[in-house]
Write a structure and sequence with these properties.
about 210 residues, alpha+beta, Muramoyl-pentapeptide Carboxypeptidase, domain 2, 4-stranded antiparallel sheet, 4 strands, globular
Length: about 210
């Protein structure tokens, strides 16, 4: 049986393509039809795929890793690939955050760090496992996200695909605890290291 991914992962990639390709509000509406022929994110093909993945999310039908990687590779050929991957990571983080109960979200945002961080860490672990097949561990004042086989690995030059995970981790931490320090890609399988790893610094306790 082939490996699979959560259906929201490829959906987040397509939603990001559409978000990046949508013209600004003040754009001449007469040119929108012409743009649909030039911008991939506005095409009927992408819209059909978005609807397919939305249905997969509702039914919890998991697409294969190969399918998700093929989509990421297509994005990786774009000159604005990094912007798309980063937007996709933020979209996924916001989706995962929305699945947490409002009561829990409010408690984490309004409680002292001593109480909020253990709960936030538990949710980061769940999100990382579900969407990235990743592992979270805490090391001092930082948390480390480890993903052995990132879907976006080697899908764009200079490890640009890995920014998907960086952006998702940054956005998720920001939403959960109201602040995050630096997020660094400290290890990369694309550099022949054993795994990809990102380190995020908790916001200092005294700043809350």
């Amino acid at each position: 049986m082939s490996a699979s991914v959560d259906p929201f992962l490829p959906l987040s990639l397509l939603d990001a393509v559409r978000a990046v390709d949508v013209p600004s509000e003040d754009f001449d509406t007469e040119l929108v039809h012409e743009l649909r022929n030039k911008r991939f994110g506005l095409s009927d093909t992408v819209l059909a795929q978005v609807r397919r993945y939305q249905e997969a999310v509702r039914r919890n039908q998991r697409p294969s890793v190969e399918e998700a990687r093929a989509l990421a590779t297509l994005i990786g050929r774009r000159p604005d690939a990094e912007a798309v991957f980063r937007e996709a990571g933020r979209i996924l983080a916001r989706h995962a955050y929305s699945r947490i109960s409002p009561l829990t979200r409010g408690f984490m945002r309004n409680s002292p760090a001593l109480l909020a961080r253990p709960i936030a860490l538990r949710h980061v672990r769940r999100v990382s496992l579900r969407y990235f097949a990743g592992r979270i561990r805490r090391v001092g004042s930082s948390i480390l996200l480890e993903v052995r086989e990132p879907v976006t690995l080697d899908t764009a030059p200079r490890q640009v695909g890995c920014t998907y995970y960086e952006a998702a981790l940054r956005e998720l931490m920001q939403l959960l605890v109201g602040g995050v320090g630096s997020v660094e890609h400290v290890r990369c399988a694309g550099r022949k290291e054993a795994t990809c790893e990102w380190r995020a610094e908790w916001r200092p306790i005294g700043s809350r």
